[in-house]
Design brief:
Pectate Lyase C-like; single chain; 14-stranded parallel β-sheet; mainly beta
Amino acid sequence: MLHRHTLILSLGFGVGLLASACVSLVPNDSHCRHAQGDQTCAERYGDARPFCTAATCDASSEGTYGCVAERPSDDCYYPCGGDNDVTVDNGCRFADDGDGDGDEPTHNGDENGDPGDEEGDAPCLDAGDCADDSAPFCDLDTGVCVGCGSMSDADGACAGVDPALPVCHADVCVACTPDKTQACAETAPICDVATNACVGCNDHDQCSDSACNLATGSCFDPAAVFYVDGGNKECEAADGTQSKPFCTLAEAIDAVTVPSRILISTVDEIHYEAEVVIADKTIALFAANDGPAPVLEGPEDKVAVAVTSSGQLYMRGVDIVRTENGLGLEINDGHAWVQQSRIVKNERGGIRVDGGTLRLEHSFVGGDADDVNAIEVLDGEVSIIYTTIVAGGDDSHAFVCETSSESTIRNSIIVSLGDSAEVMCDAVEIIDSFNEADSAEKFDDNSDWFEDWRDDFHLVPGKYPAILETLAIWRTGDPQKDIDGDPRPTADGTQDFAGADLP
């Protein structure tokens, strides 16, 4: 029997809540919080993500250097960087204001600046006479300042004043409603029904028949799609359309010139041989159908999927398995968002990051390879959430990093078969996760927590440690479905299963 150690620093607060604490954290100078705050976000993402926050405040900032689309609350807002929130340092926001705000006084009464009588004031002649924000329009029939709802063409009145707020809702001009989204486009294509504002997408399901470019908040063009089917018998006539799919993934990658989806069909007994390099392209690799995931397998001694040179990969529901003497996924100055995937039984390890960013959620990573690391971070920024990481035996580790990197692991399971520490990293923050090293529950090759500890980390009901059921804490912005599409709780602060699978 193989024995092992683990490391979970836990922090208890409230009743029934167990949260793991940081090991230690070396600041990443590229993160907006430690750099120039909003200025850093503006330089990286423009208007798509102009505000600076911390990963512990907003999960959607993980993988985007702390930059978000909406202004955070004061205790989570770092506009000037320097690791100071706005309550400590907001000087940069007023640096150009001089000795006053320059606004002219607003007069709602007569020409002398008196407040005006309730009766006898002159009727309005146009919108310029209406200074009350709640009644900015002039009804010429009555001479009374009114809200947009009192205008004969309510939406037209709003659009005439501000094209960015073309919809009248509850007597106020807003950007959108669920059935009126014409103002929502480009990097803000989604209508937030709570605020009636156009916002960027943060989930692929928000983009109908498309994918979300999570870095910019824009949706892919639905027409930019290629199909791959290894079972196609007429490969010479293939053009990547649904009726004439490519036979290999390499053909589809080569055909991409704009941000595109590649839909991969699952074919019985077929593993797609993949030595894929994504460089200076934005590609979404998705499963074409529900059911078993398509499987990519790298050639011997190679990397199955590499993301380099500012390439962007969005992978969902696609497995990378059994690369002989090779690596599953490598990010080298690229950017990858991986969801609901298995990267297992690759003999030289699951994932390596050497510059760039990785956002990993609801996935399985690892397997039974001895003396290799499931995830290794040499440089870059890594965010892992709701993921199950299982390392092999002997001198294997679940997560290893260098101090130049910055990593967060949250709501996850971290175990290994061997005696070595599961985590070898001084620059990782582990939150609300099961880390075997810090638990009385030990994992080895006789443990029956999972369906198969070699490559299938679905939890077996009644066999796993009970602590897994309530260790994770779902936060606003977290993914709402597990690796199989089963729904997570969606109330902020709700206790939840750690790891990728809801049994």
